[in-house]
Design goal:
The protein is of the alpha/beta class and 435 residues long. It is built from 15 helices and 15 strands. The chain folds into 2 domains: 2-68, no CATH class; 85-435, Alpha-Beta Barrel (TIM Barrel). It has helices at residues 31-43, 54-59, 71-83, 116-130, 149-166, 183-191, 205-211, 221-233, 252-261, 290-306, 365-372, 380-383, 388-391, 396-400, 415-434; strands at 2-3, 7-12, 15-20, 26-29, 63-64, 87-93, 135-141, 169-176, 196-200, 238-244, 269-274, 331-334, 339-341, 353-355, 361-363. Strand 3 and strand 4 form a beta hairpin.
């Protein structure tokens, strides 16, 4: 028997915490066992494990058979990803206009909307896809998609109709700044429920309003928060995205407190993402990368998890063996010219294909294969990394852009804090379930 490749461990308080990134198993060893377990792990000698833990260590995947090649699980996951030809993930860009003037926005807003011809191509594409799909997930995107409300409603209603007729599972979401979630919009969404609304708040009001003001000037925080509350009251699922940089990293906890004070604690989820510099808005001097980014995010999560917030998925649902959605064969992001992209951060000139008249999809095989052909086991640094089942090779866009080692999962840069957050998070999940 041998230890799994995918064990990570660290001391948290007086205990040793052990986590297996493949199975999602999480164990806590009290101080009296910490020394023997740690020495056994460090020496890769399973014989040092106290006998009373043997069966559990094997059952949870911390210890595996000598002849087991655990990398086969990675190979099988890649094979499974490539075989999912009847599931589609679409992202439809409705416009390149916005009512906000965000300081770090990665897009050029030229005021254009999807043309009649563009809408027709996308509708025909959806119709064709629905003939062979079992499941279609679609995110409405912009610019600000709710500035094209009529197009959104008419196309969404049509997609719902087509899906029902074809027996296709159709799930849609909206990525919006949240400012235009008026009563009429919420009434529509309450009737035709989206799977999720993703809405950005960048900190407490003074911080958020500096980075995400109205284009013509004006504050936005409280309007968005009230709209979030209305959406939640209508039974809609809301995910709060926080774009984190050196400008706001030390103020994010205030946002959590405001959400809690407005009865939104663990009612909305909160996801921290790095601000990315772009050609549209160079922001490099304020971007957090590497350890600075990981440390900031994990420190915030630890602070909030101690207050009872659920900040991560459960340990058995942390995208184990999950690739980036852009790496699946049927991931399609459309722009206003009906070009096809794999990631919303891609430059518009770097498309992987286009939608033709009639809705047929034409791909540039070489460019598309940079995404769908990704094999994490081709990367030397990944083959021996215990975090591999969680990231499956990391951010492919960063690899394509040759952006240093920024493709790596940030959690691996601060393992003790990561494990402490996992423990707190599991406790908070249990409390939330009991409530």
């Amino acid at each position: 028997m041998k230890f799994s490749l995918f064990n990570i461990w660290a001391s948290v308080g007086n205990n040793l915490v052990l986590f297996n990134t493949l199975t999602g198993a999480l164990a806590i060893f009290e101080p009296c066992y910490q020394k023997s377990i740690r020495q056994s792990l460090e020496k890769a000698d399973v014989q040092g494990i106290p006998t009373e833990f043997w069966s559990d260590m094997i059952e949870d995947g911390y210890v595996v058979a000598d002849d087991l090649d655990e990398l086969d699980s990675i190979r099988l996951a890649r094979k499974d990803r490539l075989s999912r030809t009847d599931e589609f993930q679409l992202c439809i860009t409705l416009n390149k206009k916005c009512n906000f003037g965000c300081t770090y926005c990665s897009q050029f807003h030229d005021g254009r909307s999807l043309t009649s011809n563009g809408k027709e191509k996308i509708i025909q594409m959806f119709d064709t896809i629905s003939l062979r799909a079992k499941k279609i997930e679609l995110d409405w995107f912009g610019g600000e998609p709710l500035l094209s409300l009529r197009d959104f409603k008419s196309m969404n209603d049509l997609f719902i109709k087509i899906s029902k007729e074809r027996g296709v599972q159709y799930l849609y979401s909206i990525t919006t700044n949240g400012y235009l979630l008026t009563g009429g919009v919420i009434d529509y969404l309450q009737k035709e429920k989206p799977s999720r609304l993703t809405i950005t708040l960048d900190g407490p009001p003074d911080v958020h309003d500096l980075s995400r003001p109205l284009k013509k000037g004006g504050k936005t925080f409280w309007v968005i928060l009230e709209n979030v509350k209305k959406a939640v009251a209508a039974g809609l699922t809301v995910a709060i995205r926080v774009n984190i940089s050196s400008k706001n990293a030390d103020r994010i906890s205030e946002l959590f407190d405001i959400l809690e004070n407005h009865s939104l604690k663990n009612v909305v989820s909160v996801n921290l993402q790095a601000v990315v510099s772009s050609e549209a808005n160079p922001y490099e001097e304020y971007c957090l990368n590497g350890y600075a980014l990981a440390h900031s995010i994990m420190s915030i999560y630890r602070t909030e998890a101690k207050k009872g917030w659920v900040v991560l998925p459960s340990t058995d649902n942390m995208q184990v063996l999950g690739f980036c959605i852009g790496e699946y064969p049927n991931r399609i992001i459309t722009d206003l010219d009906c070009n096809i992209h794999k990631c919303t951060q891609m430059a518009e000139s770097d498309s992987v294909g286009k939608i033709l008249d009639g809705g047929q999809i034409e791909l540039n095989k070489a460019k598309d294969t940079r995404w769908t052909g990704k094999d994490p086991l081709c990367f030397v640094e990944c083959r021996t990394c215990a975090f591999l089942p969680l990231c499956m090779g990391g951010c492919n866009l960063r690899r394509i852009q040759k952006d240093g080692d920024q493709y790596c999962l940030g959690w691996k840069r601060d393992i003790p804090t990561f494990l402490e957050v996992l423990l707190l998070n599991q406790k908070n999940l249990s409390s939330a379930d009991e409530a």
